[in-house]
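Progress note, sequence design subtask.
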């Protein structure tokens, strides 16, 4: 599966089987985590065979079951967009490996996460990981035109990028973002609601993938 196929077919999964993740796939994920941490200074960790974070009341409220593996993203406050952008790289990589995922910011126990934190950091989000009981469900999208603006006729590359952005997961599937094209410059904005900036980072990564080889500039 290519990264583009992963983007189109990946859906959030909350129920997982007991099938263990193969070591060769773990190695691929760890290599990507190392790359992200070195590039960004984020503190991303892969937690394996740890059921406590998803065994409490919050996880039950979020309808999680069988979740013993997850990515843990630790950082200081104020880095939500980076967390979303680089965390989604792991989500789509996992999908190409035949694994399922789900972004989680509330319905898990932060206290149970055995993360190694540096000064000023806290657990900002986790991403469940494993072999799902199913492949998830496609979320309902807002009309493309409601989420973007451009001067004149919409270029094909921008349309493709927006269609890719629509495949991105967002909190409660609310899609609180907007892309505006002026010349060859794209401005991405989001509503002032909780986790919207994290969502924006996720969506911007999808947008860049959908733009393919077209060279544009972020405002």
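Output:
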């Amino acid at each position: 599966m290519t990264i583009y196929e992963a983007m189109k077919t990946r859906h959030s999964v909350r129920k997982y089987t007991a099938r263990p993740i193969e070591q060769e796939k773990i190695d691929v994920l760890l290599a990507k985590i190392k790359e992200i941490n070195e590039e960004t200074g984020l503190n991303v960790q892969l937690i394996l065979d740890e059921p406590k974070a998803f065994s409490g009341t919050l996880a039950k409220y979020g309808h999680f079951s069988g979740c013993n593996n997850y990515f843990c993203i630790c950082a200081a406050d104020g880095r939500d967009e980076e967390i979303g952008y680089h965390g989604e790289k792991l989500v789509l990589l996992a999908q190409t490996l035949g694994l399922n995922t789900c972004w989680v910011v509330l319905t898990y126990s932060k206290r149970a996460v055995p993360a190694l934190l540096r000064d000023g950091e806290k657990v900002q989000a986790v991403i469940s990981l494993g072999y799902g009981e199913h492949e998830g469900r496609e979320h309902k999208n807002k009309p493309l035109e409601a989420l973007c603006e451009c001067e004149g006729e919409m270029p094909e590359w921008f349309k493709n990028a927006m269609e890719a952005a629509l495949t991105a997961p967002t909190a409660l599937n609310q899609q609180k973002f907007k892309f505006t094209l002026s010349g060859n410059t794209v401005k991405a904005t989001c509503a002032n609601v909780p986790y919207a900036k994290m969502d924006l980072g996720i969506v911007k990564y999808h947008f860049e993938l959908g733009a393919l080889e077209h060279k544009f500039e972020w405002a």
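Helices lie at 3-9, 23-40, 57-61, 80-96, 156-165, 196-210. Work on this subtask will continue into the next period as scheduled.
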